[in-house]
Please model this.
Amino acid sequence: MESWNDLKTECAACRRCDLAATRTNLVFGVGNESADVIFIGEGPGEQEDLQGEPFVGPAGKLLDTMMEIIGLDRTKVYITNIVKCRPPRNRDPLPDEQEACIGWLRRQIDLVDPRIIVFLGRIAAMAFIGSDFRITRQHGQWFEVLGRPAMALYHPSALLRDPSKRPETFVDLKLLQQEIQKQT
Ligand code: URA
Model:
C-alpha cells in the first residue's frame, strides 16, 4: 500500500499537462484521509490556486453550508478535484488535462477508501459516470462508481449563479444523509 506522503510528494512535482506552467499552487486535497465520504469537484479557482486548498472561495463557503445541513464538515470528509491545477480564467478543464491528472485522484480514492462518492457538478460526474451524464436530470441519483454508491450534486458555483436550484439540492443532500446513515 502506498503512503500519503509518497503520493503528495510525487503529485507536488507534477508537470503532466500545461496547467502546471500557470499554477501558483497545486491543489492536492484536504480533509479526513480516511473519510466515509469523498467530495470531488472540477478544478481549483482563483482563491484555491492562491491558497493551495480546494473550495476556499465563494463556492467553498456554500459547500461548507451544504455540508453543515447534513452534519458534515471538513474534518469528516475528504475534498479534492478532478484536476489539481487551476485552468486559466476558470475555463473547464480540457479532456487531455483531465486524463493527465485523474490518476492522482484514483490513487487518493484508493487511499481514502470512502464508502460514498459525491461529485460536485457535471464535469466531475462525467469523468466517472460517463460523457452522457446530464446534471439537470441526473443530480441526486445513485450510481455505482468504483464499487461504491456515488451521486452528483449541482456544483456550488451553479447554485450561486442560480439559487432556484437550491431546493432540489436540499432534497439531494437529504438522500446523501440517508445513505451515509445506511453505510456507516
Ligand atoms: N470549484 C471547484 O470545482 N473546485 C474548487 O476547489 C473550487 C471551486
Q: What stands out?
A: The chain has nine helices and six strands.
